[in-house]
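Q: Please design a sequence for this.
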């Protein structure tokens, strides 16, 4: 039997997904699919569906619509991502990232590997992407799936697995490729380097501009101001119960924070242990979620060492040294998000910044996600290379 012409291998980069438009109907459609996934909400359906369809979907889209309108890239904004001037940041950055990774991988493989992207929920979903790919390239016999979630979680990575496996479980599909899934890249050296370099760039820019440091002496100046500085690492939270039942997401997040901290210390010679704040965001509902919470951090950090709220927070994050500091400058980063979205732009860059200043903090610097940067492209291609 003759081998089908064209590439024999494929890479699928998968992100969460987003609404197709900043409108209530579009948001309702996206949230309905997302929140109906048992990986995300595993409450029994007879309990959950009345809540979802009776209370959440009728009202939640209208409530959060202003947030999506605010972050939505519009033609009037002057922002151009991958040649496009309108759309969701998550969708545009994911597409741009994929295009850049594709150019490198396909060139290195001399056309034997194709790279595509998909979303778990909403438009351009996994079944659509895989169907299109196999129709265009019938000779594909190997597929590598890379969820764009640096830290594994059953609520993100595993639900992508579900959809990929469901697609190939169709008994009428005769040619099923060999499947490889990349679980995560929480402490992959290239990813850690890219995150740390991005953070260092923001710190250097701030120190040279605000602390009157020479470009070649900013590390020394930073070391003398560490009593005023905190580095907040914020990750999307999950219910505590999920972690107790075996989801090792908290450990994978901690691995990222620790690896980035070590990289920062190696590059600067500055000890960061007393300034690292590891927190979680985006908790909702009544069940307990993993913490400490981002909102608690930004409220407590500027408080005086004697403040009871600060003491309580520092006990929760097991950092007694932090309790002795009164933070005036906060650098915040979200290493769990590959690209910026409403959770990072709204919850961190805006809400957390406002709370920090409201409670006495002076400067809050949000360090954007890697998005479609050169560092992100380098990290993703390195992760794929290691999986060969």
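A: Design:
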């Amino acid at each position: 039997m003759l081998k089908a012409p064209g590439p024999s291998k494929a890479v699928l980069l998968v992100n969460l997904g987003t609404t197709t438009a900043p409108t209530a109907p579009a948001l309702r459609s996206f949230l309905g699919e997302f929140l109906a996934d048992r990986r995300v909400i595993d409450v029994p359906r007879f309990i959950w569906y009345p809540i979802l369809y009776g209370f959440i979907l009728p009202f939640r889209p209208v409530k959060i619509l202003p947030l999506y309108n605010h972050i939505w890239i519009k033609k009037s904004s002057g922002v151009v991502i991958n040649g496009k001037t309108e759309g969701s940041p998550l969708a545009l950055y994911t597409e741009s990232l994929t295009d850049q990774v594709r150019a490198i991988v396909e060139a290195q493989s001399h056309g034997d590997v194709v790279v595509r992207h998909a979303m778990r929920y909403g438009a351009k979903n996994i079944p659509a992407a895989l169907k299109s790919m196999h129709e265009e390239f019938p000779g594909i016999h190997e597929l590598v799936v890379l969820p764009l979630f640096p830290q594994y979680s059953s609520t993100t990575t595993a639900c992508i697995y579900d959809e990929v496996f469901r697609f190939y479980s169709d008994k009428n599909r005769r040619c099923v490729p060999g499947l490889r899934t990349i679980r995560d890249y929480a402490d992959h050296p290239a990813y850690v380097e890219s995150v740390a370099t991005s953070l260092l760039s923001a710190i250097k820019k701030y120190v040279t501009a605000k602390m009157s440091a020479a470009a070649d002496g900013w590390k020394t100046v930073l070391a003398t101001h560490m009593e005023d500085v905190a580095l907040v690492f914020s990750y999307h939270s999950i219910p505590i119960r999920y972690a107790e039942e075996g989801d090792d997401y908290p450990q994978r997040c901690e691995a990222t924070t620790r690896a980035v901290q070590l990289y920062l210390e190696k590059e600067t010679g500055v000890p960061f242990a007393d300034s690292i704040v590891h927190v979680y965001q985006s908790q909702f509902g009544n069940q307990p979620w993993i913490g400490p919470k981002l909102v608690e951090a930004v409220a407590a950090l500027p408080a005086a060492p004697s403040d009871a709220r600060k003491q309580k927070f520092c006990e929760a994050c097991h950092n007694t040294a932090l309790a002795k500091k009164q933070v005036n400058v906060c650098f915040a980063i979200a290493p769990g998000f590959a690209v910026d979205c409403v959770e990072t732009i709204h919850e961190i860059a805006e809400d957390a910044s406002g709370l920090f200043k409201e409670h006495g903090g002076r400067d809050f610097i949000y360090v954007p996600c890697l998005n479609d940067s050169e560092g992100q492209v380098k990290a993703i291609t390195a992760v794929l290379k290691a999986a060969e």
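Q: Thanks. Anything notable?
A: The longest helix spans residues 45-71. Residues 127 and 167 are 6 Å apart (CA to CA).
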